[in-house]
């Protein structure tokens, strides 16, 4: 099946779905084009997310997944030169990173960025240093009992899975609307992946919208409501996550699984 067949089929699906739920459209990414210097990397990416949805953003190495997340979070690098990003009626495309963060975007990068020398609880408290505050630390501990057990331990000495939990927990301590997760399952054992997936479902049930970028595409697709697949900086699929799981040819072509 060609790119175009996928796009037109999914385009039709999307149009119908959006007609039913236009008002629920929450994060809209429209034709974003972003560059590292002269390198044109995010080549006109568009997709919508509804409030409380989990979207899996997938694609091979170098497809532009991290660059797309960084563009949405307005990191500046890559530089957004065209297109619009709207979150809950706010124009993120007109904002810098700190303004996008104040408007509810939280990017959890691949390296997790736990602050050395601070305990688990100090890492969480630091996230609450400036308003607007999100979840209380007690509420975060209810979701992540392992972090409560390790509250006095230095954050950088946690296991990989616990560090990932801490970086998600830290994001929730701020008042966020959308969680952007870059490879949260990287390097983690399957049982820990399952534990984090369960937690992400609970976070969705509390109204947070999530984009998950993952090399572990099957795990991300099982978690997600919808999937967008990128290839060389462009969207080649936008549709249900289950359909990607069911479509072996599509997975082989764009995900090499
Ligand atoms: N800082 C940078 N400067 C120049 N080019 C970059 C930079 N970061 C990434 N790129 C290029 O942009 C393209 C997309 O990279 P990106 O990191 O967004 O891909 P990805 O889909 O996240 O890949 P992976 O699965 O390996 O994490 C790649 O060709 C990469 O070499
Ligand atoms: Mg990446």
Automatic annotation (TrEMBL):
Q: Which residues form a coiled coil?
A: none
The organism of origin for this protein = Salibaculum griseiflavum
Q: Which GO terms describe its molecular function?
A: ATP binding; ATP hydrolysis activity; branched-chain amino acid transmembrane transporter activity
Keywords of this protein's UniProt record, alphabetized?
Amino-acid transport, ATP-binding, Nucleotide-binding, Transport
Pfam families, per database record: ABC_tran (PF00005)
Domain ABC transporter intervals: 27-257
Family under the similarity heading: Belongs to the ABC transporter superfamily.
PROSITE patterns the record matches: ABC_TRANSPORTER_1, ABC_TRANSPORTER_2
The answer, when asked if Nucleotide-binding is one of the entry's keywords, is yes
Organism's domain of life? Bacteria
Do the record's keywords include Ribonucleoprotein?
no
Q: Which interval of the chain is the signal sequence?
A: none
PANTHER family from the entry?
Answer: HIGH-AFFINITY BRANCHED-CHAIN AMINO ACID TRANSPORT ATP-BINDING PROTEIN LIVF
Question: What's the name of the protein?
Answer: ABC transporter ATP-binding protein
Question: What does the entry give for GO biological process?
Answer: L-amino acid transport
């Amino acid at each position: 099946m060609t790119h175009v067949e996928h796009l037109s089929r999914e385009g039709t699906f999307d149009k119908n779905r959006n007609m039913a739920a236009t008002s629920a459209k929450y994060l809209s990414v429209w034709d974003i084009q972003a560059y590292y210097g002269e390198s044109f990397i995010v080549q006109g990416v568009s997709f919508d997310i509804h409030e409380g949805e989990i979207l899996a953003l997938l694609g091979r190495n170098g497809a532009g997944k991290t660059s797309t997340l960084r563009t949405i979070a307005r990191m500046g690098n890559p530089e957004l030169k065209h297109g619009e990003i709207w979150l809950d009626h706010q124009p993120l495309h007109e904002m810098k990173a700190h303004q996008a963060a104040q408007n509810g975007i939280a990017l959890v990068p691949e390296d997790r960025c736990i602050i050395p020398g601070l305990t688990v609880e100090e890492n969480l408290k630091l996230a609450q240093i400036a308003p607007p505050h999100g979840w209380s630390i007690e509420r975060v501990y209810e979701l992540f009992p392992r972090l409560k057990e390790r509250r006095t331990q230095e954050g950088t000495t946690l296991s990989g899975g616990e560090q990932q939990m801490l970086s998600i927990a830290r994001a929730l301590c701020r008042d966020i609307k959308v969680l952007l997760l870059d490879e949260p399952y990287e390097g983690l054992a399957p049982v820990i992946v399952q534990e984090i997936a369960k937690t992400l479902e609970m976070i969705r049930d509390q109204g947070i919208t999530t984009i998950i970028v993952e090399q572990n595409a099957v795990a991300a697709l099982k978690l997600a409501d919808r999937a967008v697949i990128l290839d060389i900086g462009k969207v080649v699929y936008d549709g249900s996550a289950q359909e990607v799981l069911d479509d072996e040819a599509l997975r082989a072509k764009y995900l090499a699984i």
